[in-house]
Design a protein that fits this description.
The strands form two sheets. Strands 3-4-5-6 form a four-stranded antiparallel beta sheet. Strands 1-2 form a two-stranded parallel sheet. With 294 residues, it is an alpha+beta fold.
């Protein structure tokens, strides 16, 4: 009965969304907003049944802000829990652009990839051989690849787009690679390299909980997720750093925490939206960044 009364109240408030007085409309909007995600299905139903452009626009705005507020809370909870679950963080970032993202479908797709890799593994495999299995399943069988034609498009960062198109940028492909590897118990981490993103296979310590000294762990070799999982050594990074005329920095060679990857992903998205002139997205993402930093 309480739910029915709540829905009646919501519908009554929604019926006032054509209010011409701005101050009264603001009060109505804030009251609807206070219902949170519970209001979204009813708002969507009202949108479908309305032929008034103003009402539809106001409903869209309210839904968007409710979802943005909920995403802020989810990111904050993820961050406060340690931010180790990279897959969860990547899904939350994707919800920024795609709030109705099908999390169950994504989880199934990731699970299927993980199972395909697991079926090819055995206890005798070396670290190099394990990576070759991941590369085979990810790049040869499932045809994931770098989007070299449109590398700066914001959509390249979102996990659902990556899984559907099989194309992404170094950061999204790298995050997927890490999530699969760590899920199988392999100590693969990101390397926060300027203008590029690569992976490091560390000494075999369980990655289930990230050690505070992750930057100090020995790197066995590096992986380029944007180039079919190609392997390389520290020498190539040193050459790359010299080409960029950058000062040497320990973090350019060391594994980084998964939280760092999500922060970088958000920072790069802000830059891409800024370059395209989408100030609204810039402001919204800047606000969401505070959920992780707080």
């Amino acid at each position: 009965m309480a739910g029915e009364n709540k829905n009646k109240e919501l519908r009554a408030l929604i019926s006032l969304l054509d209010e011409p007085d701005g101050s009264i409309y603001d009060q109505v909007r804030e009251k609807i907003f206070s219902y949170g995600l519970d209001a979204v299905p009813i708002l969507e139903g009202a949108w479908e049944n309305s032929f008034d452009g103003l009402i539809q626009e106001r409903i869209e705005n309210i839904i968007h802000n409710i979802q943005l507020d909920d995403l802020y809370s989810e990111l904050n909870v993820w961050s406060q829990s340690g931010g180790n679950d990279l897959l969860k963080g990547h899904i939350l970032i994707s919800k920024f652009q795609y709030p109705d993202i099908d999390v169950e479908s994504i989880t199934r797709q990731i699970g299927s990839l993980s199972q395909d890799i697991w079926l090819e593994l055995n206890l005798r495999l070396t670290a190099l051989e394990k990576v070759k299995v991941i590369n085979h399943i990810l790049y040869d069988i499932n045809k994931f690849s770098g989007n070299k034609l449109n590398i700066n498009a914001p959509d390249n960062y979102y996990l659902n787009v990556l899984l559907n198109s099989k194309k992404g940028n170094p950061l999204s492909l790298g995050a997927l690679y890490i999530a699969l590897a760590q899920g199988l118990g392999f100590p693969v981490y990101g390397v926060d390299l300027p203008r590029h993103f690569i992976l490091a296979y560390l000494d075999d310590i369980s990655p289930k909980t990230e050690a505070t000294d992750i930057e100090d762990r020995k790197v066995l070799f590096y992986i380029n997720p944007f180039n079919q999982g190609a392997l390389f050594t520290r020498n190539e990074i040193e050459l790359y750093i010299k080409q960029l005329s950058l000062s040497d920095n320990k973090k350019y060679y060391s594994g980084c925490k998964n939280m760092t990857i999500i922060k970088r992903m958000m920072g790069e998205l802000i830059l891409q939206y800024k370059n395209s002139g989408n100030q609204n997205k810039v402001e919204e993402l800047t606000r969401l960044m505070k959920a992780i930093d707080s």
